[in-house]
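Lab meeting, item 3. Inverse folding demo.
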């Protein structure tokens, strides 16, 4: 991959890193081992209100976990940029198609390996 394309992906990844960090700050946590999404409390103790509070809390935890995972992927991709291994499949060592990287810049595997891993033959 030439330097211009590498710089392009680094810029995209850096912007994504900042976006995800802001999103996590809004959710209240950056530590995937210690989720601390705020438990909503309506002040009512009816079964319907309690169920709604629990559903909202679980949704926040799920969103937080997914965002944490995306942030880890972006950090790994930026690390690969600095090591000179960005755009290379971590499983087979072949280049990852640039169209895949445009669609998901934090990708660490080529489409063939990803399909094999997820058993999408």
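The presenter then showed the designed sequence:
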């Amino acid at each position: 991959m030439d330097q211009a394309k590498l710089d392009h992906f680094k810029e995209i990844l850096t912007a994504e890193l900042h976006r995800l960090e802001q999103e996590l700050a809004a959710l209240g946590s950056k530590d995937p081992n210690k989720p601390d999404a705020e438990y909503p409390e309506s002040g009512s103790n009816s079964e319907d209100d309690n169920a709604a509070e629990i559903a909202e809390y679980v949704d926040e935890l799920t969103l937080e976990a997914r965002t944490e995972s995306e942030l880890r992927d972006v950090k790994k991709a930026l690390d690969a940029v600095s090591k000179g291994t960005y755009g290379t499949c971590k499983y087979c060592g072949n280049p990852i198609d640039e169209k895949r990287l445009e669609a998901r810049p934090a990708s660490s595997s080529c489409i063939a390996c990803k399909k094999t891993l997820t058993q999408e033959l």
